[in-house]
């Protein structure tokens, strides 16, 4: 007994191995030698393990802590899961405020009534608006009222626009549809919401196109957005001649068209005659806004309409009649000297009988600038196009003797031909040196 206990104390692993099941009735089992029968079966008796494990070779005593390693790995996995962050989006304070205070109207201390609708709001939020800040801080009677009736003088403002404007006081972002931006801008200007006004302006700049440009231009002028107005004018200067549209011609006012035609930054297609043709179609749509044909039919319908009224002019051109006088200020900016230098274009001008004949005659040979009594320079009398230096392919705006030579015989840059900037129109013609 003493020797056994001493062996157990000295070799605890061996004692456990001796107590394995199947050791026999006598008690102890010998540890098999390397290469014995058990090794052939591939059993591994690992000290500290309570179960046999298959091994590829002889008995193994080299991994006494294999089960402990499994427990440690499982513990490490659990620890890793505990330390891995899980992303879950919480409801932001802004959304909570918008939902609870604005939409639900909880703890409201004032009611705003307008256009038959009521909003349960809060004075502390309304004071972000310059309109309500002045109302509540001054000696106005509304400063002590709990129900305020707003008068809406602007027809652009509707209930939906007021909903967006009031809601912007309770949140940090506002979604603005381009189709609603003018109404929202009107409401923001009335309530003096500078942040919302700025956002409306940015939305307008980003969505200028053939359908929105005229509405944006008018609204920008009404509500003082000069940067938007300038952006719209730039778009029209660059696209009026290349993006002609029936609805666009209907919406362009006389004042806007006068600015466009009078600008040296207007891009034209090849010749000044294109500008005259565009003006003729535009004038027809201004006089007959109910016409709903296609752009391809527009020029034909325009010519037919004016030809039917030519007999009623009694020897006058259309611009000399009462119906045509409002358009004189626009046609005055036409550079007729760049049109009548071409015989075919001059004949069209004469047949249309829109422009006063005196203006064409003055350009043609009398040395008088059209629409005024200013005498043209000698160079312009000799050639109406003698003031530009732009090369062009049989372009009547070609100026020098060299540029009037057929351009097929020398290299031509196509870009100046296709899209000409009329910068030369504002330049005074230079005198020729007498030889």
From TrEMBL:
Residue span, BTB domain: 108-178
GO cellular component, one term: nuclear matrix
Main location group: nucleus
Location of this chain's protein in the cell: Nucleus matrix
Ranges of compositional bias, category Acidic residues: 67-76
SMART domains: BACK, BTB
One Gene Ontology term from the biological process aspect of the record: spermatogenesis
UniProt region (Disordered), positions on chain: 1-37, 65-85, 414-435
Composition-biased stretches (Basic residues): 419-435
Keywords, comma-separated and alphabetical: Developmental protein, Differentiation, Nucleus, Spermatogenesis
InterPro entries with a match to the protein in the record: BACK (IPR011705), BTB/POZ_dom (IPR000210), Gcl-like (IPR043380), SKP1/BTB/POZ_sf (IPR011333)
Gene3D superfamilies, alphabetized: 1.25.40.420, Potassium Channel Kv1.1, Chain A
The name this protein goes by in its record: BTB domain-containing protein
Classification of source organism: Eukaryota, Metazoa, Chordata, Craniata, Vertebrata
């Amino acid at each position: 007994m003493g020797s056994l206990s001493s062996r157990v104390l000295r070799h605890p692993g061996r004692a456990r191995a001796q107590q394995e099941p199947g050791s026999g009735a006598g008690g102890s089992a010998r540890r098999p030698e390397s290469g014995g029968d058990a090794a052939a079966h591939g059993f591994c008796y690992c000290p500290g393990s309570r179960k046999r494990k298959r091994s590829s070779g002889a008995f193994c005593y080299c991994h006494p802590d294999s089960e402990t390693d499994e427990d440690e790995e499982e513990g490490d996995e659990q620890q890793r899961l505990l330390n891995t962050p899980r992303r879950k989006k919480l409801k932001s304070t802004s959304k909570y405020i918008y939902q609870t205070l604005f939409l639900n109207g909880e703890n409201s201390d004032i009611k705003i009534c307008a256009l038959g609708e009521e909003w349960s709001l809060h004075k502390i939020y309304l004071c972000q608006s310059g309109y309500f800040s002045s109302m509540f801080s001054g000696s106005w009677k509304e400063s002590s009222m709990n129900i305020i009736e707003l008068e809406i003088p602007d027809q652009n403002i509707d209930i939906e626009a007021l909903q967006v404007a009031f809601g912007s006081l309770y949140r940090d972002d506002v979604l603005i549809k381009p189709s609603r931006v003018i109404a929202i801008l009107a409401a923001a200007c009335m309530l003096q919401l500078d942040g919302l006004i700025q956002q409306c302006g940015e939305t307008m700049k980003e969505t200028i196109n053939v359908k929105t440009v005229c509405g944006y231009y008018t609204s920008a002028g009404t509500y003082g957005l000069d940067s938007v107005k300038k952006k719209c004018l730039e778009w029209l200067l660059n696209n009026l001649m290349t993006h002609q549209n029936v609805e666009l011609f209907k919406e362009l006012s006389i004042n806007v068209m006068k600015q466009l035609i009078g600008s040296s930054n207007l891009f034209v297609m090849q010749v000044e005659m294109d500008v005259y043709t565009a003006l003729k179609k535009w004038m027809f749509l201004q006089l007959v806004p109910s016409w709903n044909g296609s752009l391809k039919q527009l020029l034909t319908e325009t010519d037919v309409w004016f030809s039917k009224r030519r007999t009623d002019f009694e020897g006058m051109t259309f611009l000399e009649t009462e119906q045509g006088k409002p358009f004189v200020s626009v046609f005055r900016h036409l550079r007729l000297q760049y049109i009548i230098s071409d015989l075919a274009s001059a004949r069209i001008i004469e047949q249309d009988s829109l422009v006063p004949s005196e203006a064409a005659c003055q350009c043609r040979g009398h040395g008088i600038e059209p629409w005024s009594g200013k005498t043209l320079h000698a160079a312009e009398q000799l050639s109406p196009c003698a003031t530009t230096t732009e090369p062009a392919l049989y372009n009547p705006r070609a100026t020098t003797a060299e540029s009037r030579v057929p351009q097929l015989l020398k290299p031509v840059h196509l870009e100046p031909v296709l899209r000409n900037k009329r910068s030369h129109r504002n330049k005074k013609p230079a005198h020729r040196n007498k030889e």
